[in-house]
Amino acid sequence: MSVAKKRPTMYGDGTRWVLLHADALTLVPELPEDSVDAVITDPPYGIGFGGEAWDGGQLTDAATFQAWTSAWAAEALRVLKPGGWLAAFGTPRTFHRLVAGIEDAGFDVRDQLLWLYGQGVPKSRRRSDGLGTNLKPAYEPILLARKPFQGTLDANLAAHGTGALQIDGTRVPRADNGRGFWPANLVLTHSSCKPGRCQADCPVVLIDRQYPSERGLSRLFYAPKANRSEREAGCERLPLTPVPIYPRGGGAVRQVRNIHPTVKPLALMRWLTRLLCPPGGTVLDHFSGSGSTGAGCVLEGRRFVGIELDERYVPVARARITHWAAIAAQEDGLP
């Protein structure tokens, strides 16, 4: 007697966005090939982050992490249209394994983007003798890869609309209202700054101080890190939950509604969406987490298909994407 396969729980309006509570390694093989325009995702890093089960266990073995990466990337390659782009966040310690795994799956490695920030705390225990085992994190690498396209780039663009970066859609505005600067593979964030007042070590301030004649050189790279209001917008009905301030737990805690520990800034996700996905296209995110990719997609007029396995994060992602989809609809004059 056969047992009917349980379908994943699905949220969203079914037109602009869909969020599925499922295992990406099980669900993505069911999606049709050549059906999405871009993949933008923040997978586990395999470093045992914060003691979280989704980032620990066998994934902390380097060879296992690389093989696991190849498994989900192979299905990403299949569902992407020819010439479709993939952006995957990583961490310096295991980034080489991420790149190798995605390349082993059949992608062409094209570039590495650097997201620099002043925030963050070292993951090393503070010792009384002044020694430690880790530096303070100050950047995250983002792999930029592409599914091989068919024939020439012009032919692939004509057939599928994919293969090239959306340069004009991501240019940095000029002070003189010119065409704008070509987008770079580097973005910066402020340090732990307050509106209108930056810390002395803020990278944005340091760059602008070094090059005062450039009218704020940092504007070429800057993307703000998600603050508390951005992280929790739309989550007002979710319960407050105590979470440790430091990744290793212990010590001070804070009460939050968005419990995800690695929320990406919307400015960065919107920029990646505009860069990699043609207008009206579809973005897939295997590891949706708190829904930042989905929020960026609905704000930029792209369709979104997200998958999240951890039941703790699904309500957060659902609430956040719903919130930003409603704001996008208001801006577009939609019901």
Describe this structure in words.
The chain is an alpha/beta fold and 335 residues long. It has a single domain, classed as Rossmann fold (3-Layer(aba) Sandwich). The chain has 9 helices and 11 strands. The strands form 2 sheets. The protein has a 9-stranded mixed β-sheet with strand order 1-2-11-10-3-4-6-5-7, with helices on both faces. A two-stranded antiparallel ribbon has the order 8-9. A hairpin with a 4-residue loop joins β1 (9-12) and β2. It is globular, with a radius of gyration of 20 Å. The mean pLDDT is 85.
- Which strand order do you get reading across the main beta sheet? 1-2-11-10-3-4-6-5-7
Look at the helices and sheets and give the structural class.
alpha/beta
Count of helical regions: 9
- Kindly provide the name of the CATH class: Alpha Beta
Q: What's the SSE pattern?
A: EEHEHEHEEHEHHEEHEHEH
What is the helix fraction of residues, given as a range? 25-40%
User: On the 0-100 scale, what is the average pLDDT?
Assistant: 85
Query: What portion of the residues fall into strands of 2 or more residues?
Result: 15-25%
How large is the radius of gyration?
Answer: 20 Å
Contiguous low-pLDDT stretches (5 residues minimum) are: none
Per CATH, the superfamily is Vaccinia Virus protein VP39
Distance between the termini: 47 Å
Give a topology summary.
Layout: E1 9-12, E2 17-21, H1 24-27, E3 36-41, H2 62-79, E4 80-89, H3 95-104, E5 108-116, E6 139-146, H4 153-160, E7 186-188, H5 203-210, H6 228-232, E8 241-244, E9 253-256, H7 266-276, E10 282-285, H8 292-299, E11 303-308, H9 314-332
Parallel strand pairs: 2-11, 3-4, 3-10, 5-7, 10-11
Antiparallel strand pairs: 1-2, 4-6, 5-6, 8-9
